[in-house]
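User: ok so my PI wants both of these folded by tonight, can you help

Assistant: No problem, let's get them done. Here's the first:
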Amino acid sequence: MSEEVASSRTKNEAWEWLKALGIAVFLAFVIRTFLFAPFIVDGDSMQYTLHNQEKLVVNKAIYYLSEPKRGDIVVFHAEARRDYIKRVIAVAGDTVEVKNDQLLINGKAVEEPYLEEKRKEAEEMGIPLTDDFGPIHIGEGQIFVMGDNRQDSHDSRAIGPVDLDQVVGRAEFVFWPLSGIRITR
């Protein structure tokens, strides 16, 4: 094999590697920007559903096709440099309130099985899990969110309803730590 053929083959192989790397970087950018993103839970506001420092995948594309639903766990822009993760409690047109530690949506009691452990803890301490509030009407283009750890959550009770354009996406599954891999529903 001549030196010229070997040099041409090396250049072609380098070009192919550069193209593959460029495509990979482009695909990673598109996926991260429009489809999925990692998120690290910061704090205990979603305890026991999610735990501090767990890493999860957020589906950013889901809300291009539909709006958040009651029960979805969403990530949203809460502050200029900080995103929050909370559960959707009420959607546009709903009226939400808590009376005697019971969540009411449009005047009807709502079961919250994801609060079972926290509710037991609150009962043992002789305090309500969720203090009374409301009624609050949720406007068009908004959602009302609360953390599952109601006694330690800075959520719509303090910051008000969240505009839909602030929602990043829906939490899909925990991927770290490996021993805690699970779907986040």
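One down. Here's the second:
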Amino acid sequence: MIAHPDTLRELLTRYETLRARPGHRQELEDVSYTLCVSTATRDIRDALRAARDHIAGTQAA
């Protein structure tokens, strides 16, 4: 089961914001973990891809 698209959008935005800011390692790790759990993946690259694909799929529908 994958998280709601709005939740994924918020997580992606938070992830991208934290990636751009040095010094927020723990917060970035927390968001990365949440993205993985929310997309049923184990790797942040897979989680990002799954979240973006799910959001795109719901927009196309």
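The chain has a mean pLDDT of 94. The two ends are 18 Å apart (CA to CA). Good luck tonight!
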